[in-house]
Write a structure and sequence with these properties.
The complex is a heterodimer.
Chain A lengths: L3 E10 L2 E11 L4 E5 L6 H8 L7 E6 L2 E2 L5 H7 L1 E3 L12 H6 L3 H5 L12 H13 L15 H14 L4 E5 L7 H15 L3 E5 L3 H7 L2 E6 L2 E6 L1 H6 L1 H6 L6
Parallel strand pairs in A: 3-8, 3-9, 6-7, 7-8
Antiparallel strand pairs in A: 1-2, 1-4, 4-5, 9-10
Chain B lengths: L13 H16 L7 H23 L8 H18 L3 H23 L4 H21 L1 H4 L5 E2 L6 E2 L4 E2 L4 H23 L2 H11 L1 H6 L4 H27 L1 E2 L6 H14 L7 H19 L3 H15 L3 H17 L12
Antiparallel strand pairs in B: 1-4, 2-3
Helix pairs in contact in B: 1-7, 2-7, 2-10, 2-11, 2-12, 3-4, 3-5, 3-10, 4-10, 8-10, 11-12, 12-13
The chains are: A alpha/beta, B mainly alpha.
Chain lengths: 247, 339
């Protein structure tokens, strides 16, 4: 059975149906891609899968358990985390502190009033290791606002990673990145894939087709195609819409 | 705007000791500078209130504009506990804290999922609701007359009971409460809990998405802040020897915001202390010259918000940073110095 399964998800805002009968399933150890034109409902789909919005109908199961409509923090507690398309960091904190706060061991003592994080060398070591993985070694003490755009993109993933998820949702990681930064990010994702199941929304088709094991195409709030990158290259709709043109 | 990122494991720090030295010796010199002992007690009571309030405003970024109501509830609770239950200082203060904390906890249920302007408007609404209940429920609160003749209960230490009817003795009671509270609040704001509150101020959504129950944190900090307001209210009832409705008004709820902002509550733990001292000193010194002192205080507030929104504490931090930079001419790293 798949690690993560969504069945028949519906979501509407007012009269606008944003998601309609979405079925998705992600296998453990795989990297799944989600693609589709702007406004197709990809990010909304992420928001429903990670607890930001409750679906109007349908179910979401993770590791055999029903997690439909759970609050975001409970979903994180089950082992799912996400990064954001629009950067969503703690701007007044250093890179290190952004990651520290996301560590499970810090979360477990969130109501502690005697513990002191700056004296917690174990938490610091772990956070430094996470920053090392996303390529931010040496930038630990830098304030988020002083990081470059590309570094903040990497930190965005680092914060999600720090929660030690079994399933990581990544929303458009290459948004706004140049070619060399995109190349480094591809390396990073390839490395993460070895340990973590990943689901990624991506507009950069070359990037997505090179990394993903399976890809789902969402359009008009529905999954209109699903398959391996090779299968999708042959898919008439994908060819016609030129979404796969670069691949 | 946020605090220094660096957190400390210390329970007692140099600024805490400095505040003990200043407030601890205050009765010895306050008359020499032309002020009076009662003012010292008033300052400490409002400092306690303001430190608790800043947990919400400065640390969590939740602007409550109805907090005066909780100071008032604490004062009434203290008086009623004294008249109706048991006229013992510790019991009555505890009653003020617990009752106000309960009012805060119930109010917070309606507030903990709101933020920004909606949170602010809801706090005004609740503040007004409590104000009108206090003014109309005359059987309990005695309405506009207030609860009169609340006694300054002696400090019962088991073997001896120290009277605090005099202003100097009463001042030292307030100082003792301040001393305990300031250490506890310092630890709280330097703990993981404090770090998460500050993260909620910066980015509530992300805090939820790294796994924290944000509503529970907001609910708990509101309740805690109200409990501290209740403690201040209990002392206030003793200071005034009565509990009156005026502190529950919208105006006084606004003044606490003013004090905390002018002092720099957003950038320093000590901002509320500076702000309260400035307010009361301005009231008494400017007030000696002109009846329109609040106008001048208001203008000072406007000027600070326009030119130095980090308040008095921000000005102090600038001076300190410049002094450090002068001593060692290495350029101060732009990173991490924020705050």
């Amino acid at each position: 059975m798949a690690l993560f399964e969504a069945r028949g998800l519906h979501k509407r805002f007012g009269h606008q149906v944003v998601l309609e009968r979405i079925d998705l399933s992600f296998e453990a150890g795989s990297l799944s891609g989600i693609m589709g034109p702007n406004g197709a409902g990809k990010t909304t789909c992420f928001n429903v899968l990670t607890g930001r919005y409750k679906p109007d109908r349908g179910s979401v199961r993770f590791d055999g358990e029903d997690i439909t409509g759970l609050a975001p923090h409970r979903i994180v507690g089950r082992g799912i985390s996400r990064s954001f398309q629009i950067m969503n960091l703690f701007d007044e904190y250093t890179a290190l502190d952004n990651v520290v706060i996301a560590l499970p061991q810090v979360r477990a003592r969130g109501f502690s009033v005697t513990h002191a994080l700056d004296a917690d060398t174990e938490a610091r070591d772990r956070a430094e290791a996470v920053l090392g993985r996303v390529g931010l070694r040496g930038r630990e003490r830098t304030n988020v606002r002083s990081l470059s755009y590309g570094e903040r993109r990497a930190l965005e993933i680092g914060v999600a990673l720090a929660t030690e998820p079994r399933l990581l949702f990544v929303d458009e990681p290459t948004a706004g990145l140049g070619t060399s930064a995109t190349g480094r990010l591809a390396e990073l994702i390839r490395e993460l894939k070895r340990h973590t199941t990943i689901v990624m929304i991506e507009h950069d088709m070359r990037f997505l087709f090179a990394l993903a094991d399976r890809i789902s195409v969402i359009h008009w709030g529905q999954v209109i195609a699903e398959g391996t990158p090779d299968e999708l290259r042959e898919n008439p709709w994908v060819r016609r819409s030129n979404l796969g043109g670069l691949a | 705007m946020d605090y220094d990122v660096k957190q400390t494991t210390a329970w007692i720090t140099a600024p805490i000791l400095l505040s003990f030295a200043v407030f601890g010796t205050l009765p010895l010199w306050i008359e020499a500078v032309g002020l009076y002992h009662y003012l010292g007690a008033e300052v400490l009571i409002w400092v306690i209130f303001a430190l608790g309030y800043n947990l919400l405003l400065g640390y969590t970024g939740l602007p409550s504009f109805g907090h005066g109501a909780f100071l008032g509830i604490g004062a009434y609770a203290f008086g009623l506990a004294q008249f109706e239950v048991w006229p013992n200082l510790w019991f009555c203060l505890l009653a003020a804290v617990v009752v106000t904390g309960l009012f805060g906890a119930v109010t917070a249920l309606f507030l903990s999922h709101r933020r920004g302007i909606y949170f602010a408007l809801m706090t005004i609404a609740f503040g007004q609701v409590f104000f009108f209940i206090a003014s109309k429920w005359t059987d309990v609160t005695h309405g506009e007359d207030g609860l009169l003749n609340i006694a300054r209960l002696p400090v019962d230490l088991g073997v001896v009971a120290l009277p605090v009817t005099g202003n100097v003795e009463f001042y030292y009671l307030c100082f003792a409460v301040y001393a305990v509270l300031v250490v506890l609040l310092w630890r709280l704001t330097n703990s993981p809990y404090g770090r998460i509150l500050r993260a909620i101020k910066q980015n509530e959504t992300r805090v939820a998405f790294v796994g924290y129950p944000v509503r529970l944190y907001k609910w708990s900090v509101f309740t805690l802040s109200c409990a501290v307001a209740g403690l201040a209210g209990g002392l206030f009832a003793m200071a005034q020897e009565g509990a009156y409705i005026n502190v529950m008004s919208l105006q006084w709820s606004g003044i606490i915001v003013l004090m905390v902002l002018i002092g720099g509550g957003f950038v320093s733990f000590w901002g509320p202390v500076l702000g309260v001292v400035l307010y009361f000193v301005a009231r008494d010194i400017l007030g000696a010259y002109t009846e329109t002192w609040l106008l001048w205080f208001g203008l000072m507030f406007v000027a600070l918000v326009m030119f130095k929104p980090q308040g008095l504490a921000g000005i102090w931090q600038d001076i300190a940073r410049r002094a450090v930079a002068r001593r060692k001419p290495v350029p101060v790293a732009a990173t991490g110095a924020e705050g």
